[in-house]
Amino acid sequence: MRVLVTGVSGFLGSHLTDRLLREGHTVIGVDNLSTGDLENLSHLRDDRRFAFKKLDICEPFDVGPVDYVFNMASPASPPEYLRLAVETLLVGSAGTKNALDVAKRYNAGFLHASTSECYGDPLEHPQSEEYWGHVNPVGPRSVYDEAKRYAEALVMAYHRYYGVNTHLVRIFNTYGPRLHPSDGRVISNFMMQALRGEPLTIYGSGEQTRSFCYVDDLIDGIWRLSQSDLHLPVNIGNPTEFTILQCAETILEITGSKSELRFEPLPQDDPTRRCPNITQARTKLGWEPKISLRQGLLKSLDFFTSKIEKPPVGAGAIESTSPLYASTAQSAVAKSASVPLEVHGAPAPAHSAAVPKFSLIVPTIGRADEIEQLFDSLTRQGTSDFEVIVVDQNPDDRLKAAIDKFSRHFSIVWQRCPSGASRARNFGLRFAKGQIIAFPDDDCWYSPNLLKNVGQWFDENPAYGILATGAEDESGVPSGNRWIQNSCDLHPINIFRTTFCSSLFIRNGQELGSAEWDQKIGPGSKTGFSCGDETDYILQLMSQGLKGRFDRRWHVGHPRRDMLSSAISHERAVSYGKGMGYVLSKHSFPFLWLALLGYDYLRVGLLTLTAKWEAVSLCLSHASGLYQGYRTRPRVVVNEESPATSV
After folding, report:
1. Catalytic residue among 68, 144, 175, 601
2. CATH code, 310-443
């Protein structure tokens, strides 16, 4: 099956993905990373059956045909859903509806992750699925409780009125590896406090009860439910009940900690008893938990121990457990061996520590001299509200020295990735948090105050999602796209004449979720089609509704902007032609447009080359390449890094 998992980078979403892959399925995982952690997926980076897309399911989306949808998206810990109150309500309502629409569109199965919080502070004990609950609809916790209750009603409506094959799981307290150490839940709080030697915080008397289910048991229950014919809610949790004091004592014993107990007032609407009646799961699914609390805590101990903060690894550098928090020096510092990541530089300004204005994704092959020129230009931008994500396929000491040199000016994330510029840009998009994303080449440079001006332009033009600036050569003379005389809106015919990769600025948002740089074209591609990757990327974005603009007022510098004059050989002219022909055929443009492209290249050639007949000869070579590229006529382009994702 081709399976969609929303909230894939979360605690449960990542474990569910592991189970689906073990069952032999292909998984498309989506997440907006508001509370998720990409480190939870780091072990899947080389799994060709898994693809990750950063998008917000609160906006309508489509990842193509799927056979099943697991809707796991929502803040789940009290600190997070209280911090993201409105977002929690929206993901339970609009987000659930959009996920249901995907299942309805493709006649796919659907499982929604609900919660035992639907029972509130229950008057029935243990809680069965028939119990309607005792919930405060306007209390602080209501943003989570009512979002989940509404979502259940919506799921049942889609089942009853549209015939969607839906399932509802009510999840009780779950723990295990990947549970965020600071998420505010009982197990994570106690484990981290005990390992640090801090007092264990107990709210109330400690006599209130909980049941704790190990994550592997829970995922097994969810999987069985997804394969069943049960459509009404089913409790999945461990029915063995513990007081909070008993849980604290068990954790102290397992960790060997000498921490004391500290008692605090009980939060408003915190339930005093919580325990599932799992009769339905036992009788209809053949499921019950197998792992005891003590066994599960022992299985989790290494994970929580690894999250104890260590001293910084060096001045000006941070090694982070998660690229999501890479731009702040306050991040936890523990190295992930499976996702090599180095973060350098001072934290971003306080007003943008979580979401910088810009993310600059820079593919490189270890060209330290060239990238220093780019870094130097970034110190004259009139703003430091940006992060630089360097994706390197050939790391060396000289590049590291260049990064160290400029890390005092802005945040730099140094990421390693296999070869290919398009592959590197897709890889960098996984970690980009900025409101605006740019794709500078390692040998380009930004004119002074470019980022400041571009940021202001996006603020003043909310209807636009794409901006392409002009270009200049080493002497500061506008070049490359100079035959476009005026600023204009982008449309399919003028894209190849107005844009190049380094001049692109894209508003970050849900539209980026399904757009990818095609690895069959662009520098470093295995096909040798060295032109057209930015054209193809913009066409993908425009097909999803993004409006674009070309503005000549600002320039990005680049030493090789006049495309035909840089194609000093017939071989390169053919390569350029193949790339553009491939793009046009991929997007089903009429063959007549190839002639238009050939005419433009001929005109540019005549203007830029001294030898007139050499210009004609090169353009004929280019036209030959256009025809060859057009004949490829790709129907489905598979991302080499994430083959499950169709374009």
Report:
1. 144
2. 3.90.550.10
